[in-house]
Structure formats: structure tokens, C-alpha cells
């Protein structure tokens, strides 16, 4: 299973904003730190804002801060908010008509079970868990110090 760049960038944005210790940061700053397209990053920040992970202040002097404490922000819920779907195989996609076994296949049930286990595993970890013991390293490598 591979996560989309949107989700990858969303996780990176959350790490950056959390490592900024409550300071409001601009999307340009995040874009520069990671070498991510500013245009794409604006979409990611929009998704995170709508999902309630970031507080977004628009316009001049705007920027983003965490909308929730890192201890309350579970990684699985970030994936659920940013991934368009978790269709591991074609028949798990809505409206699939390609596979003649769609609707009768026994493979789908174990795949859905694996998908739920994947999210449940990530939900055991919070953004704070990701930051713990690494915050100084993150801050240094991202140019926050």
C-alpha cells in the first residue's frame, strides 16, 4: 500500500507546524523547508484546515497553527481525512465494473479487514508520539532553530 503525496505532505506539514512550538507559520516557509510546491501545499493545508487539524489564517500576516494539541491528533485520522480512498484493488473502488467477480469475491472482506487494522494501528500513535525525542532534530533539519 502506498500513500498519496497529499497524505505524505499533510503529515510533514503537521510535523513542521508542531515543531514550530505554537508559532504561526506560513505555507511559503513550509514549502521552502521541504522543497514542496507552494501550490500543492496550499491544497494540503486547506484539507488539514477543513478537517480541523490546522487553524488557518488567510491573507497578509496569515499562516497556520495546530488547531488541536499534538497529543490528541491521531495519525490514523489524518490518513482517513487526506486519502481519497483505500482501495487496494480495483474491485474495492466504487462503481467498479471491470472485474467479473465484483460483488461475489471473497477477497474483498480480508482486504477491508487489513485496511481497518492499518488505520487502527496508526491510531495508536499521535503527532506528539512522532515528535517526542525527535523535536530538536526536526527543528534543526527544518531550519526552525
TrEMBL record:
Signal peptide: none
GO molecular function term, any single one: DNA binding
Top-rank taxon: Bacteria
Matching Pfam families: Rrf2 (PF02082)
PROSITE patterns the UniProt entry points to: HTH_RRF2_2
Keyword DNA-binding: yes
Keywords associated with the record: DNA-binding
GO (cellular component) term, any one: cytosol
PANTHER family, sorted: HTH-TYPE TRANSCRIPTIONAL REPRESSOR NSRR (PTHR33221:SF4), WINGED HELIX-TURN-HELIX TRANSCRIPTIONAL REGULATOR, RRF2 FAMILY (PTHR33221)
Protein name: Rrf2 family protein
Organism: Plesiocystis pacifica SIR-1
